[in-house]
Design brief:
4-stranded antiparallel sheet, Salivary secreted peptide, elongated, MBF2
Length: 123
Amino acid sequence: MIDLQTIIRLSLVVVALVVVVSPLLVHSKSVVFGQQSPNARLLYATHVAEPSKFFRITERRVTFKQDKNIKIIGAIVIENNNSTIGGEASLIEGGPTYTFATIKFKSKRNHGLNFNLYIYDSA
């Protein structure tokens, strides 16, 4: 049974996440897959960067696999470019409720990639 104090804490965490992540989502192609709980533990963090290619689209796949049977509850992808011209990220395999995830990063033509990826589980 969840008590009132726990519900209030969870609500405050959700509001804080919305306040922090919302400006990023408005100005960039950042995305959140799944959810993040107050007890979430960071499983994996990486910086995805690829230089631009003249008249070409840049793509890169990042796969997170683990030996343990710990399920992912969420992934946050933040684009580091200050413009919306950059690229996009899409979850193509696994993700929340799975023990692995493959995320595809794709740039616009003539642009590179510059993202941070964070994957969380419930502790």
